[in-house]
């Protein structure tokens, strides 16, 4: 993305959250103007969860950067006790408006700051396209904070687009991540169980679905 478009969107490396609130506050419950809004679960995640074994007992799930909430609703339908958060208050209001009968706890919170009371708390954590939505200088803290949410024996799913080119601020958003994100999660106490890749990307070279376990 060039500087002109970045400036138009209000993207700022030192206030990286603000433009999301602007975008969602100008949107509505049809997701107009939100480029990533599928208004349905992410198809790669949906395919993965439909093939997973049904839950034997209730488990907790956390959806990171939940946007308009469809992935959280999918997890609720599969029997999870779901918490979902986004840094944008307007996104969270739209989730509540779209799904008034859901028991999902939709919460405004900031992944860069982290949420200490959620440390090792969730059996299942889902991260789709949030790390790549934030400038490269936050990568280490984002990965640490995502990994921290995963409970003992819990699972993390990361869906992300990957590039071999070095991440630099001038090229984003999005700031596609490099494949060494896998090592970073492992250095934060998780172990890679599987990594599925395909080439049906929007901007990157590959799209990954990685499953980690604590
Ligand atoms: C590219 S969108 C992806 C949304 C959703 N996961 C999906 O796949 O449709 C990135 C999301 O992360 C949220 N986000 C950005 N910065 C965040 C932060 N610091 N903490 C929590 N959420 C954040 C944005 O508001 C946006 O909803």
Give an overview of the whole structure.
By secondary structure, the chain is α/β, with parallel strands linked by helices. It has a single domain (3-213), classed as Rossmann fold, CATH 3.40.50. It has 7 helices and 7 strands. The chain has helices spanning 3-9, 18-25, 43-51, 70-77, 89-98, 139-148, 181-187, and strands spanning 60-64, 81-86, 105-108, 122-128, 150-162, 191-198, 206-213. It has a 7-stranded mixed sheet with strand order 3-2-1-4-5-7-6. The mean pLDDT is 95. Bound molecules: S-adenosylmethionine. Residues 17, 20, 36, 42, 65, 67, 86-88, 91, 110-112, 128-130, 133-134 line the site of S-adenosylmethionine. Its EC number is 2.1.1.-. Keywords: Methyltransferase, S-adenosyl-L-methionine, Transferase.
Write the element-wise H/E pattern from the N-terminal end onward: HHHEHEHEEHEHEE
CATH superfamily: Vaccinia Virus protein VP39
**Dominant shape:** globular
Strand proportion, as a percent range, falls in: 15-25%
Number of domains: 1
Distance between the termini: 36 Å
Helix content: 25-40%
What CATH calls the topology is Rossmann fold
Distinct helical segment count: 7
User: Sheet bearing the most strands, described?
Assistant: 7 strands, mixed
Structural class: alpha/beta
Biggest sheet, strands in spatial order?
3-2-1-4-5-7-6
- CATH class (first level) name: Alpha Beta
The gyration radius over C-alpha positions equals 16 Å
Mean pLDDT: 95
Tally the beta strands.
7
Give the low-confidence spans: none
Q: Which CATH-level-2 architecture?
A: 3-Layer(aba) Sandwich
What ligand molecules are bound, each kind once?
Answer: S-adenosylmethionine
GO molecular function: methyltransferase activity
Protein name: Class I SAM-dependent methyltransferase
InterPro entries: Methyltransf_25, SAM-dependent_MTases_sf
Domain Methyltransferase: 62-154
């Amino acid at each position: 993305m060039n500087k002109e478009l970045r400036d138009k969107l209000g993207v700022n490396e030192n206030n990286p959250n603000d433009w999301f609130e602007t975008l969602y506050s100008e949107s509505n419950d049809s997701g107009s103007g939100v480029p990533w809004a599928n208004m349905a679960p992410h198809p790669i995640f949906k395919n993965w969860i439909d093939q997973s074994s049904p839950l034997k007992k209730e488990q907790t799930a956390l959806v990171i950067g939940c946007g308009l909430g469809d992935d959280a609703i999918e997890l609720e339908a599969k029997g999870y006790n779901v918490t979902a958060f986004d840094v944008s208050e307007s996104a969270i209001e739209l989730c509540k408006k779209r799904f008034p009968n859901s028991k999902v706890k939709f919460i405004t919170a900031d992944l860069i700051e982290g949420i200490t009371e959620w440390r090792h708390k969730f059996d299942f954590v889902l991260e789709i396209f949030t790390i790549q939505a934030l400038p490269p200088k936050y990568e280490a803290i984002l990965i640490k904070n995502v990994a921290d949410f995963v409970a003992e024996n819990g699972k993390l799913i990361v869906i992300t687009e990957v590039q071999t080119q070095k991440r630099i601020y001038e090229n984003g958003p999005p700031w596609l991540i490099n494949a060494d994100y896998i090592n970073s999660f492992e250095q934060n106490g998780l172990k890679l169980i599987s990594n599925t890749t395909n080439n049906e990307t929007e901007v990157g070279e590959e799209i990954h679905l990685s499953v980690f376990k604590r």
